[in-house]
Each structure stands twice: as C-alpha cells, then as structure tokens.
From TrEMBL:
Coiled coil: none annotated. It comes from Ethanoligenens harbinense (strain DSM 18485 / JCM 12961 / CGMCC 1.5033 / YUAN-3). It comes from the Bacteria. It holds the Pfam family PBP_like. Residues 11-58 form the Helix-turn-helix domain. Gene3D superfamilies: Periplasmic binding protein-like II. The lineage of its organism: Bacteria, Bacillati, Bacillota, Clostridia, Eubacteriales. InterPro entries: HTH_17, PBP_domain, SinI_DNA-bd. This is DNA binding domain protein, excisionase family.
Length: 324
C-alpha cells in the first residue's frame, strides 16, 4: 500500500535505503560525503523525506553512477560496514599519544565506514595509560621501557590499569638515541656519558617514553637526575628537543631517529630499539570503532602511510601482542 509522505517526515537510514533501493550502508556514506542531508536525534541518524526527494532529483540524469558503499581504496581492505548510528560515544572518541602515526590512524578511522571522527590528545605514554584507566580516552599509545624486565609497555600496562583487562596492538619498532650537535663536539657516545658533569641535557617532560628511558638508565647507572645539568628543563616533543640541541641550547637530548631526520645541524647516535604499541580496553574490542582500528593497523593502506613517514620497523605491525 502506498503511503504519501510529508516533506518533513523523518526517515531512518533503512527507510531511506528502501526508497532509493540501495544498501543501508550506502546511505551512511552519502551522508558522510555531504551528498544527502542527515542529522542526529540523540544517537540516531535521521533524514527528512524532502532531502531524499532532492537527492533523487539531483541524480535523475546520472546513469549508472550509484555510489559505492566504500571509497575505492578501502573496498578491497575492509569488511562490510557495520551499524554507524550505535557506536559514537557521547563524550567523543579520543586517541591519545604524540606520534604522527596516530594522526594517520585518526584520519583513516574517520574515513572507515565503521569508524568515527576521533579527537586527538597529545599526552605522553604514562599519562596516556592513566587517562585510559580513568576512561577519558579510548585508545592509548606507549613506548615505555622497563629496565628490570628489559621489555616495553606491558609492565606499565599491568601497573597502570589495575583490574582492567587490556589489549596491546603492535604498531612498529623504532630507534631511540641521542641528538647531539653536528660532528658531536662533546664526543657523547653512550649511556655511560650520563655520568659526566660537563654536558647539558635537553630533557623531555615527565611521563613521556623518552623521559622514562632516560630515568631508567640513570637508575641503572646509580645517577640522580637532578645532578645532570639541564635535567629540569623540559621540552614536549622529540622535535622540540632536536631543535633545541641544533640551536645550541644543550649538548644532547634523547629521542627517536625520525625526528633527527627533520632537523638540521644535529647528528643522531642510535642506542636502543623500542616498541610502539596501542593499548585498548579488552571490553571495547567488539565495538565497531575498535574493530575498525584493528583492521586499519593491519591494512596495506596504513602500512603504505607509515612507509612514507619512515623510521619504523613494521615487521609485526597490527599484531595483537598481549591480551589479558
């Protein structure tokens, strides 16, 4: 039976799909692209009938150009889209960490048909895990070395997420070392040079992976941080440390090799390979955005982006390295 609809009749995505004779997931893509006007009522997506009519009229003269449910470069990578209107958190979806690959992840998550538009928080590794424990972020990242076990991240996850089953997903390995001025005038070569009193450090903030790496090696050497000249002066990124060293603001700093490639007039002394991982609550893994993240980090698209950035060993990228 035919039922006349008013222009302002509110339709569900399934009802729109039935009218247009397309898949419901395609409706979500049309809305995301801005080709079909949609809006939210609480957590539900709705479309007015008049906007469906307008979309039909706009495309009447276009032959055989019905939109695909996925952008073409996703089609061979990701599984079919899941429900989009049920998984957008009221307080936002936050990915926490400072590495540029997380900006890539955020962009791809927004493009993914089961994804969300995430927010980015740029706290270091320790605070990232703490915020995950508090529920203020949904995805944390870390590269924290534990000297007692000579392992990365897992000891801190167990300590900072008590009673919270978590999953670690490997992103890549990268080289950490020392930034020194060009030609290394102070001849700084190893962790043992931290004992010296004639060199000044450009330090990172508390809670960052580089700061934890420094403090763990100071502990092994029996050196108190406050005795190291420059220890109390902090920068908020690898790039800021490298830039400060290049300007003569210190004799050395600690950071990853990738940042050293972006700054002139410094040399990089490799010392230790680190593991960079994502951490999520185990209870969240069945939710669409988290499934999307697992697909993205194991995808050729994400790998290609990381290869373009450079500085990572991607041998086990996307591998779940711990579930507990």
């Amino acid at each position: 039976m035919f039922i006349a609809l008013e222009d302002n009749t509110s339709l569900t995505p399934q009802e729109v799909a039935d009218i247009l004779k397309i898949a419901k997931n395609t409706v979500y893509v049309l809305i995301k692209r801005g080709e079909l006007n949609g809006y939210r009522v609480g957590k539900k997506v709705r479309v007015d009938y008049k906007d469906v009519v307008a979309y039909k009229n706009k495309t009447k003269n276009v032959k055989d150009e019905a939109p695909e449910p996925l952008d073409s470069h996703w089609a061979d990578i990701f599984s079919a889209p899941l429900e989009a209107e049920e998984h957008i958190p009221e307080r936002g979806f936050v990915i926490c960490g400072q590495d540029i690959v997380l900006d890539v992840l955020a962009r791809l998550l927004e493009m993914h048909p089961s994804g969300v538009r995430p927010l980015r928080s740029y706290y270091g590794s320790y605070n990232s895990l703490y915020l995950l424990y508090k529920g203020d972020v949904q995805v944390a990242s870390a590269h924290m070395w534990d000297a007692d076990t000579n392992t990365y991240n897992l000891p801190y996850v167990k300590a900072l997420l008590p009673g919270t089953p978590a999953v670690l997903v490997h992103i890549g390995r990268r080289m950490e070392g020392l930034y020194v001025p060009k030609e290394n005038p102070k001849n700084i070569k190893s962790w043992d040079d931290l004992r010296r009193e004639d060199i000044t450090i450009v330090n990172r903030e508390r809670g960052s992976g580089a700061r934890i790496l420094l403090d763990e090696h100071l502990r092994l050497l029996g050196v108190q941080g406050k005795t190291l000249p420059g220890y109390g002066r902090e920068c908020l990124s690898h790039l800021a440390v490298a830039s400060t060293v290049s300007r003569g603001g210190g004799d050395f700093g600690i950071g990853n090799e990738k940042a050293a490639m972006q700054v002139r007039n410094i040399d990089f002394i490799p010392l230790q390979e680190e593991s960079y991982d994502l951490i999520m609550r185990k209870e969240d893994l069945d939710k669409p955005p988290f499934k999307a993240i697992l697909e993205i980090v194991a995808s050729p698209v994400f790998r290609a982006e990381m290869e373009g950035i450079g500085g990572y060993d991607m041998t086990n990228m996307g591998k779940v390295v711990y579930t507990g």
